[in-house]
Amino acid sequence: EAGVAQSPRYKIIEKRQSVAFWCNPISGHATLYWYQQILGQGPKLLIQFQNNGVVDDSQLPKDRFSAERLKGVDSTLKIQPAKLEDSAVYLCASSLSWDPGNTIYFGEGSWLTVV
Amino acid sequence: SQQGEEDPQALSIQEGENATMNCSYKTSINNLQWYRQNSGRGLVHLILIRSNEREKHSGRLRVTLDTSKKSSSLLITASRAADTASYFCATDARDNFNKFYFGSGTKLNVKP
User: Fold this and answer.
1) Residue B21 DSSP SS3
2) Mutate to test the interface with B, among A10, A45, A60, A96 (most CBs of B within 10 A)
3) Most buried of A5, A13, A78, A114 (most Cβ within 10 A)?
4) How far apart are CA A100 and CA A43, in angstroms?
5) Which helix (H) or strand (E) element contains residue B73?
6) What is the pLDDT of residue B40?
7) Chain B residues touching residue A103 (CB < 8 angstroms)
8) A18 burial via Cβ count (<10 Å: 0-12, 13-18, 19+)
9) What is the mean pLDDT of each run of 10 residues along chain A (115 residues)?
10) Between B3 and A48, where is the model more confident?
11) Is there a contact between A103 and B33 if contact means CB atoms under 8 Å apart?
């Protein structure tokens, strides 16, 4: 079974530029998550989708971050304009459904460095 | 905050020894998961334990959950150098939407 796919794996941009990350979840998984992990910290949930609807985006900095999952499968996370403090790993994850107790599977992450 | 917090922050042991990591959380949960993260890699799921379970095993891993103390522990027996990684516990929110919140992790170093 293919895992969660993410691209690009690494990205270096200058502050105030924009960047987009793509995620393809495990086939059949209705729930998709984006987490931000700053070096030395645990992952922080940014947004959760159930199919193409947003379940929770309370920790997404909406002035600069946006995410979409238009057809309920792939998802993109965009940052515009980027700040230095956005340097982190952006982890996409998916689970079969939003019912409690479903294992969440993570991709390898997209590493962002803002200079 | 719903986040679990792991203890200790760092642990260094010799190969063959057992490693125990603890996780404490603040509010009631439905489920708790443990993950491993090798340096530069994504998170790998280890075990999910439900609030009505007290103990689960998977190979060399043993997880316990004490809901009265709001704590969990992960025991790795007969550790190997390949177990060197960061270990995170993740607790869910009680809104029943399968949202999990992570602590800052325990960094385990197993010396050969």
Assistant:
1) strand
2) A45
3) A114
4) 19
5) strand B71-76
6) 86
7) 33, 45, 48
8) exposed
9) 91 97 96 95 94 92 95 95 97 91 92 97
10) A48
11) yes
Looking at the complex, does the CB of residue A95 fall below 8 Å from at least one CB of chain B?
yes
What is the SS3 assignment for B98? coil
What is the least distance, in Å, from the CA of B77 to any CA of chain A?
23
pLDDT value, residue B96: 65
Query: SS in 3 state form for chain A?
Result: CCCCEEECCEEEECCCCCEEEEEECCCCCCEEEEEEECCCCCCEEEEEEECCEEEECCCCCCCCEEEECCCCCCEEEEECCCCHHHCEEEEEEEECCCCCCCCCEECCCEEEEEC
Is B43 an interface residue toward A (CB < 8 Å)? yes
Is residue B95 helix, strand or coil?
coil
Write out the two tokens for A28. 């059949």
What average pLDDT does the segment B18-35 reach?
A: 93
